[in-house]
């Protein structure tokens, strides 16, 4: 008789969001709520977490930047990468942000690409109208 030498595979686990992100469902949207400083120091764990969120294959995603206190070009590139990956799966995408972040997006040259909404209801409307 043969001995079974196959060991069980550990259960899959999503990377924890850490101190700078939350995930929730609001207004029929999967909302990625980024907060605090989104910069080079937080990029690696956030990138891994955002990749796991894309793997959920939701029909629509919103990145909420209203609670960010600082976001640099590395953080904006994370948002742009997340947007590209979401769009590859033909899911809806929108960004919500405060006026101070709109100024940053304009200076970074990504205002027209991300086309931020002031709140979740407006983001939902934009996704529905795509």
Short description:
This protein has five helices and four strands; from the N terminus they run E-E-H-E-H-E-H-H-H.
Helix segment count?
5
Structural class by sheet pairing and helices: alpha/beta
- Hey, roughly how much beta strand do the residues contain? 25-35%
Distance between the termini: 61 Å
Low-confidence stretches: 4-13
What is the number of beta strands?
A: 4
Summarize the biggest pleated sheet: 4 strands, mixed
Rg from C-alpha positions? 17 Å
Kindly report the average pLDDT value: 86
Overall, the morphology is globular
Strand order of the largest sheet: 1-2-3-4
Order of helices and strands: EEHEHEHHH
Task: Report the helical percentage.
Answer: 40-55%
Explain this structure.
It is a single chain. The protein is of the alpha/beta class and 130 residues long. The protein has helices at residues 40-54, 73-88, 99-108, 111-114, 120-128, and strands at residues 21-26, 29-38, 60-71, 92-96. A four-stranded mixed beta sheet has the order 1-2-3-4. Helix 1 runs parallel beside helix 2 (73-88). It is globular. The model is unreliable at 4-13 (pLDDT under 50). Residues 29-96 form the STAS domain. InterPro entries: MlaB-like_STAS, STAS_dom, STAS_dom_sf. It comes from Streptomyces hokutonensis.
């Amino acid at each position: 008789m043969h001995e079974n030498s196959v060991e069980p595979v550990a259960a899959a686990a999503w990377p924890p969001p850490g101190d700078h992100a939350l995930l929730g469902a609001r207004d029929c949207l999967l909302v990625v709520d980024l907060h605090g400083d989104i910069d080079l120091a937080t990029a690696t764990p956030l990138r891994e977490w955002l990749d796991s969120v894309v793997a959920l294959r939701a029909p629509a995603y919103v990145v909420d930047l209203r609670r960010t206190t600082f976001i640099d070009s590395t953080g904006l590139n994370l948002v742009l990468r997340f947007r590209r990956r979401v769009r590859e799966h033909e899911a809806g995408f929108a960004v919500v942000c405060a006026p101070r972040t709109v100024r940053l997006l304009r200076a970074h040259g990504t205002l027209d690409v991300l086309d931020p909404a002031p709140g979740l209801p407006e983001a939902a409307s934009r996704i529905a109208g795509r």
